[in-house]
Amino acid sequence: DATVLLWDVASRQPLGDPLKGHKSSVESVAFSPDGKALASASDDNMVLLWDVASRRPLGEPLKGVRVAFSPDGKTLVSASQDDYDSDMHLQLWDAATRKPVGEPLEAPPSVISVTFSPDGNTLAAASDSGNVQLWDVATRKYLGKPIKNHTHIADRRATSVAFSPDGKTLALAMEDIVVELWDVATQQPLRESFTGHTDMVTGVAFSPDGKTIASSSRDKTVRLWDVATQQPIGEPLIGHSDYVNSVAFSPDGKTLASASDDDTVLLWDVTPNSWASRACERANRNMLQSEWDHYIGKNVPYHRTCPSLPDGEGVVVIREKAKARIE
Predict the structure, then answer these.
(1) What is the sign of the dihedral through the CA atoms of 296, 302, 304 and 310?
(2) Alpha helices in the chain (DSSP H)
(3) Paired strand residues for 205
(4) Residue 100: which residues within 8 A CB-CB, separation 6 or more?
(5) CA 111 – CA 90 distance, rounded (Å)
(6) Burial zone of 238 (CB within 10 Å; 0-12 exposed, 13-18 middle, 19+ buried)
(7) φ/ψ of residue 323, rounded to 5
């Protein structure tokens, strides 16, 4: 609806009136690292900077339909296109003066996701062409060849891209229902793809500790993945009634936000300890020994996941046998 809304996370209430200034769909938003400024990019090919405290625009609009802040907050990058027939380019901007920094970077057609590496030295952009291009920010030169899908499936596109916290790995959300990991240095795929969604993957994000990836999909779900094992963590997060378009972790990694075509943003508690606490409250018992063996494995010693509740059925017998052997 061409507006931007700010929300209080604790109360789940909007903070003031919508920010108005765009003339078309708002496609991308990004906070500065200090939280004092907000950038919004729209299909009207404008980037607006907002003072978060006063909710007023900062200066004149910049050009762009995608936007991201550098980690130090000093630089903005915007992806823009003068018209549908022209080439797309990336422009770096001085966030304080809102002046362009150097000449535009030639970009692949229809950039749909742009992001800085955590150290701010590398820029990545995913495009409708299916490629992800990396640039050295200082020299404004390409880093190697474009990262292309390695399965050679025609029209296979990256829909979103994210750097790991250490900057060594790129996560790509792919149109064909998978998430891929790539080594930034070698620009080669790492391990196998993450598979589990049943429709296009639309967004991807690393947790702040780099151990978890969240992905959103047109199958109306959000999934969490263990980076080390490449296995899903639990079941899909279900709550949206339409395509889920993007995901973002809170800086402490305890909360995940997902945005959907159903016009809602959902907040998810993704802290494993709180999952266990809620499970204990709901079940009011510990796992049976048979359940532990099936879901956790016989090689892991049984322990109470609900410390205030007694052992599950079958555990006491095993412990008594072990005690008898010791005696």
Answers:
(1) positive
(2) 272-283, 289-295, 315-326
(3) 214
(4) 91, 92, 93, 94
(5) 9
(6) exposed
(7) -65, -40
The whole-number pLDDT of residue 42 equals 94
H or E element that contains 92: strand 88-94
Angle at CA 260, nearest 5°, toward 282 and 210?
A: 70
pLDDT by residue (tens digit) across 195-224? Answer: 899 999 999 999 999 999 999 999 999 999
- Cα–Cα distance between 306 and 298 in angstroms, integer? 19
Q: Please give the Cα distance from 290 to 296 (Å, whole number).
A: 10
Contacts for 34 with CB less than 8 Å, ≥ 6 apart: 73
Place of tokens 């029209």: 155
CB count within 10 Å of CB 62 equals 21
Q: Look at the alpha carbons of 185, 189, 191, 193 in this order and tell me if their dihedral is positive or negative.
A: positive
Q: How far apart are CA 187 and CA 218, in angstroms?
A: 27
| 84, two tokens | 């549908």
The tokens for 106 are 């030639």
CB 26 within 8 A of CB 40: yes
Query: What count of residues does the chain have?
Result: 327
Spatial CB neighbours of 104, under 8 Å, sequence gap ≥ 6: 89, 90, 91
From the first residue on, what is the mean pLDDT of each consecutive set of 10 residues in the chain (327 residues)?
94 94 94 95 94 93 92 93 69 93 80 91 84 88 74 63 95 87 88 87 95 96 92 90 96 94 94 72 84 78 84 67 58
Q: Mind listing the pLDDT tens digit for each residue in 223-272? A: 999 998 888 888 899 999 999 999 999 999 999 999 999 999 999 998 86
The phi and psi torsions of 226 (rounded to 5 degrees) equal: -85, 115
Tens of pLDDT, residue by residue over 153-171, are 445 678 889 999 999 999 9
pLDDT at 152: 43
Tokens at residue 101, please? 């920094």
d(CA 209, CA 249) in angstroms, rounded, equals 11
What amino acid is encoded at 242 in this protein?
D
Write down the residue that tokens 């391990």 correspond to. 191
